[in-house]
Amino acid sequence: MQVALIWHPSGVVSSFLPGRSLLGLDYATFRSSAAFLRFKVIPELDMLIYGAKQMAESWRTVRKNTVQIAEDIPADKYGFQATPDTMSVMQILAHMATSTHWAEQLHFVDKKSDVTGPDFGRYMGEGGAIAATLTSKDLIVDALITRGEGFALQLEAMTDAQLDAIVTLPGGSKSRFEMLLGIKEHEMHHRAQLMVIERMLGIVPHLTRARQSR
Hints:
The protein is of the alpha+beta class and 214 residues long. The chain folds into two domains: 2-48, no CATH class; 52-213, Up-down Bundle (Four Helix Bundle (Hemerythrin (Met), subunit A)). It has helices at residues 27-31, 52-72, 89-97, 101-109, 117-131, 137-156, 160-164, 176-200, 206-213; strands spanning 2-7, 13-16, 21-22, 25-26, 40-41, 47-48, 166-169, 172-175. The strands form three sheets. Strands 1, 2, 5 and 6 form a four-stranded antiparallel beta sheet that branches. Strands 3-4 form a two-stranded antiparallel ribbon. Helix 2 runs parallel beside helix 8 (176-200), helix 3 runs parallel beside helix 6 and helix 3 (89-97) packs antiparallel against helix 8 (176-200). The radius of gyration is 20 Å and the shape is globular. The two termini are 35 Å apart.
C-alpha cells in the first residue's frame, strides 16, 4: 500500500493513499496540478510503509491482547452482563473469536468484488453459528488463538494489488485494505468493552498492570 505523507505550509501533515482523492483530485492528478505546488511530499516517506505484513503483525498484537483478557477473566464470570440487555462476557468473546469469518469468506475464499446484502447475511449467519458452539472458556481461548493466527496468515499473504482492489458494497464501495483494517478496529471496540467489564469485576486490565509496573 503506497502511502505518502504530505506537508502543507500551514504545518498540517496528512497521509494520502493513492486511489483516494485530496482536494477533489486523484493522486496522479493532484501531483501534477497547481494545487500540488502548495504541498510537499516527503520523498523518503513516499514508499511502502503499511502493507499486508504490517497489518498482519498489528492484528496479531491486538488479538494477543484479547486472548490475555479472555484468560484473565475467571470462567465463573463468563456469564456476567454489564446490563441485562447486553451480551455476556462469553458472548462478546465468542463473537470476537469468530468475527473474522465473514472477511475470510469474502476476501480469501470467495474473493468477491461485488457484495450483496444476502452475501453479508450468509457470512454473518455462518459466523454466528460457529460462535454458538463456543460454550466454555477453554473453547473460546482456543478459538481466539487458532482462528486469530489463521486470519493473520491469510492477511499477510495479500498482495498490494489485492489490498488496493475496490469492493462494491450495498452502501457504496471500499478498498479491501480499508475493509480488512476494519476487522482490527472492530476487535479493539469490543476489547474496550471487556476492559470496562474487567474493572466492574474487580480486575485490573493487563495493559494497565504493565504500565503500573514500569
